[in-house]
Amino acid sequence: MKNADFTTTILVDQSPTEVFNGVTDPRGWWSEEIKGPTGQVNDEFDYHYRDVHSCKMRLIEVVPGQKVVWLVLDNYFKFTKDKREWLDTKVIFEISKKGAKTQLAFTHLGLVPEYECYEICEGAWTKYVQQSLYSLITTGKGQPNPKE
Predict the structure, then answer these.
(1) Distances (CA, A) of 10 to 71, 93, 124
(2) Domain ranges of the chain
(3) pLDDT tens digits, 91-148
(4) Buried b vs exposed e over 45-69: b needs ≥16 C-beta within 10 Å?
(5) Taking the CA of residue 85 as centre, how many other CA atoms within 13 Å lie in the half-sphere pointing to its CB?
(6) How far apart are CA 32 and CA 35, in angstroms?
């Protein structure tokens, strides 16, 4: 599937508000090292994982209980030829009711199979969303990267 942006979904018993609260707490599911605000339009935060990956995100859309969009302002990968591969891509969280449950559709718009990091990033995002964010939403505790 050429030019297919990475996407994954989870389905939970919690409300759209609880899912939104989980999404806007990336320290609770992605990394405890995140610096900066993560909940309002125009908030900017920095992520880093050891010397392997760092990025700066800006929240460009925030609709409580419905949607959050991050724009990648800067990116560094140690392991790719193009160190800035995610630059100008968008990370989108869309929240919707599915019967009695709430669905979270995660899309990294611009993260496509042609990217050198795709396989590694696909695996990482799948783990963070399907396991860590899911756990944060359903139990109150995720499995983010710990502080170094």
Answers:
(1) 22, 11, 15
(2) 6-139
(3) 999 999 999 999 999 999 999 999 999 999 999 999 999 999 999 999 999 999 998 8
(4) bebbeeeebbbbbbbeebeeeebbb
(5) 19
(6) 9
Give the residue among 55, 65, 63, 64 at the shortest CA–CA distance from 108.
Answer: 55
Token representation of residue 72: 């990648």
pTM of the model: 0.95
Fold of 6-139: Alpha-D-Glucose-1,6-Bisphosphate; Chain A, domain 4 (3.30.530)
Residue of 115 and 3 predicted with greater confidence: 115
- Contact between 92 and 69 under an 8 Å Cβ cutoff? The reply is yes
As a whole number of angstroms, the distance between CA 8 and CA 144 comes to 18
How far is residue 26's CA from residue 9's CA, in Å, rounded to a whole number? Answer: 17
**Token digits of residue 129:** 């969303």
**The tokens of 118 are what?**
């795709």
Report the candidate in 77, 75, 76, 73 with the shortest Cα–Cα distance to residue 88.
73
Q: Which two tokens stand for residue 27?
A: 């320290």
